[in-house]
Design a protein that fits this description.
alpha+beta; six-stranded mixed beta sheet; four-stranded antiparallel beta sheet; 37 strands; about 35% helix; elongated
Length: about 1250
Amino acid sequence: AGHNPTAHRARLGLGLHRDAESGLLRTGRETLFVRRGGRCACVFYRSAVAEAAVVPMGGFAEVPLETHGEARVVAVDGASERRRACETASAAGGASLRAGRGDPKRGVLTWSITNDDGSAITLAETWITETSARDDVQDGTNKMPHAHCVRLVFPRALLPMAAVVVESHGSYDSEVAAVVVVLDVTGVAHQIKVPSFSAATRRRAGVGTGRDAALVALSASDVTSKDMSASIAQLEGPTAMCAVGTRCVAIGGQSGRVAVLDSQSLDLAAELKPATLARLWNAMAGPTQPGGNSRLAIRGVKMIPRETRESPILLTVLREDCHVQVWDLTAPQRPVAILGASLPTAVAVFGGLAEGGGDTLSGTRVACVMHVADGFLAVATRDAEDTAPCDSGKSKNNPPITSKLSVYRLELVSGASGTGAGNGHSVKFVSSVDVAGGVASIAVCDGALWSLGSDGAVRAWPMDALVSGTAILSNSESGGPPLFGLDAHADALQAWDPRDPARGSGAAFALLGASAKSGDEKRAPRAADVASDLTNEIAARGLVDGVALRDALASLRWPRTGATPKGGVLLAATRAVIDAAGGPDASAANAVNAWASLAPAYGVAWRARNASVGLICADIGGGDVTIVVRGGGVGVARPLDDVEAFVQQACAGFELPPDSSPAQRAISIGATLDMLLGPPASRALDLVAAGFGSARDDDDDDETFSDVVAAVSGAAEDWLDVATAYAFGRVSPAPIAGIHDAARAALATRRASQRRAASATRLAMARLREVGASVASACTGALDAVEWVERNEGTEGTGLPTETETPRHTRWTPRAETQSARQHADARARATRAILLLLGATRRLGSQIGATAAEVTDAACLIPRAVAAHRAALLARWLVSTPCAGAAAVAAAPDAPPPLAAAVAGWTADHHGVLPGPVSTGPTAALANVGRLKTTVLVLGGCDFRAKLDSQFEGAYVRAVEIGAELYANGELDALGALVAATRGASPGDPLDPAFCAPGLSFLRALRASASIATCENGEASPESSHSKSATRRALGFFHAAAVGVGVSDTDTDSDGGGKEHASPTDPALVHLVELLRSIMSGFPVAGAGTSHSTRDTGNLTTSTATRLTRLEYYETLMLFFERLGSPFGAAECAHAALMEVANDFSSGGGDADAMEADAETPVTRDDDAQASRDADAQATRHADNQTQAQTSDRRSARLWANLLQYALDLQKWAEAYSATLSMPGVEASRAALRRVVAAALAADAAGGGGGGSHALSM
């Protein structure tokens, strides 16, 4: 890889495991040595599966950094706050920010001017990273400043351009941190001075907090206006603007001139003119555009980034006729032109790549936008015959236009002057790509070429692939929209149309049981049971936006629900769905229909508010990153890691190359079936797989709760059969509200394609056999490729740090890391869902798709593993997308609550220490690595019990118990119920799944059911209330069911005194939960627990560290637990159970006392005196042990009977209290207990007015 800045995107292996002996990473049989500079850089093993899965950087993911709330409005010069639309295009930009001198916090100041609000500019301040040296890592206690958004409204419409001049590093303590210059249509320049943090703190002393953004203090007094119409009259209309250095602003115009203004005084510092011959030719040729625009119009001005402060200030200027100039503005009053040249033209085109030249457009060319960085000049051009604006996707009278993105190498020789050919400066063509539609923005950043199309889609191409000519360039799939893009997720929400089943909503309704009839013997799920699962799709897709929810509810004319723009969005959406369904007790079908109405409205509102309007290249300390500016927030583009790129290549929907691996082919076939289902049905499949509609242990028992899938399809089909049937064209139920003609025609077309899917699948499976793979083997390889494994990060960097490199550490905000983790989980969920659909199709259709009987059997046997892998990915995605509601949320206030993952040990640990150190890895690679590591920790947990994941079912059960324990310890009771329901869900083709009756899950259900024991429905403590008694009985039932996981004893003793193992050992997961319960009651951490992943650890589930647990100890712990809850009824039940265990332990361990005495009195008749003496000694030892055990049993019995007496007195059950006195061991103890009973009864009799307790006593 050398020092290639983007080679880190090409990973070298998948499915890596640590070798316990050597400490190396291994998967198979091959060893690879990577040498750099004569020394071994890394050694690891590489398997055939890993080799097949290696792909180059083929895509990226947009990570949402911040969603801004409603902007604060500041009116300038008495302007009106109302929005005024204009005909100009939308534009956006920004620059990097630092909190202060020496402060490692980095952020971006973004601006946007949209065509629906043409007289206002929206400024947003977003803090995203913290960068410092490796040995000076911040501990996270110094939190990032809050984001803030301001809408500055001016009296007249603004031009769609602005410049952000950031103050130099030496003046961060001044009053101004940045200056934003904007022009209106009359030529008035407005100077917006963004206050520095120190100035903002002084202004808001005693009002704000230390974490307020600087924009919070921005007011109308910070805006200065100056009429520049005379100074820029020679421009004949501004066309482009940018900041130059820290003191100047460059403005390009229609005439080809560039005005350089001082950013402080707004005075004209210099004017850059085009060449004389160019002006003469333009005057002779006249205007070439219909509106009279000149071909000399400036279409791009951009300052070349400086490597050091001593480097010259160079400005690149691009004219519409594709002529580029470079000016030296180190001294603005004396500009020097150092380069002037036309972009080279192409002479031939081979496979979409322009060889030997540049732009391949026939005739004249029109330049639209440009960007310069990293020694490259990127230009977007189109044919001059397309008369539409550059950022438009269609010409006025012709079909949609095609734009060309060309990359040139800009070589500037230091110290050379003049614009002639002999000065050494040159512009050389590198490569070009074609994109459909217009181009609004372009950037060279983070080792890739980025473009923002007129359709709002962001595309990217790796620069190393463009330079080497290995990229797919003609309308490239590799440069298409990101697989995990936010816009695609918003479109998926819009597919939830109850009147358009052709997009997948019909199959989704069927999968979710929306057509289940009421009146069944079993209670159907209610709206309250499923609403949160439905609305969680908003967070699972990364589209949480409070303003979008408000707009969606307004468009539906639903009442608004009280919620903050951040943490309460999902709660507000859930309440809205429940209200629209008819209340909490309405049917689940009504909730599904309500969600099908809210989801498309939300998707439309989100797209309208969060349209992409610009790209900026921001320096965040560790390197430059590409920031996507949206109307309602900002995001950062990061490269995909190896697994994500593998999934993208398989799920892209295009024809795979001939050398694709069987694993990729298998995922590709399944992804095609997934697309036939449609996004709503795919989401429904995930919900059903995760236990949608299952009981949350709130009210009724499971026996009264129906299965939503069985209610629709019958018991003969499981949910995978149902999903497969609809993927191949099964007719879905008719929508309740009817269907319009257009949707009916689209549905007919879709069903026809679904019915043709069988033949296409048969052909794809035949191609699998041609490469020597079966469905089962290909799916096995695919599951191996996307398996959750821990990586050695030291082998994944592009290189080792040299002596001249300074290791940097980039810490992103928790929100960014959470969103990156969500995308990693989503990639695996998409792959495992595709594998499931392919296996389900093979099992269900068999010979119809060309599968043999053996292949059907093998596929059916693989389904349980695929289900487990899919549920693991869904669990990780759910944990990172669902906000907390317990202790973590309270601790985070007033900030938005963290995800549920924050309650899981290891999530908040510092994973940055194992990330690659060199700067060349880049901050976005660090973001991808942290997201992958955090998600892996969620799925795998502590390394001590990770070996249990080798078991197909036990590993998933163990991890679910551990996560459930941590959720309970943090007060996340609703999440605990959802987790247990998901874990206990039916698994297709898996009769041996132990999750349904697993002891650990029963214990978790008991913990959740006991949460409301001491609280009745009106919120008052009442242990005698019917609500409390019902919850106690329910919890006791689950606790008793979990007791089967406790062995009677660890060993039995035979007649010879030897030990033999018991047939039913204690479940280590249950031991872990009991230890956790003891630690919660005592306030001390679990003994012997702790991993390297977290400072707060509730233990792990290893049998080696598990303490010995008997049923007596089990019920004694539960007795104390119910006592702490204030439930003497439950404590008494557990005390009775413990007394039974005392008797059982005595009879099984020491035998009957009378039998032991008879054995001792048996005469010895042996002739051998020594043997007789040994037998006598053994009998005496057994007798002594029996007496000791009897004494211990008496002490425990006395303690338990004393507790039972107290519980009976608390409940005023006098007969049970008197029985406890009779059962008390010892005469004196029994008499003392009787005195307590009589005193308590007389006290109750006196308090009740006489005739109460004493009359109820048994005399």
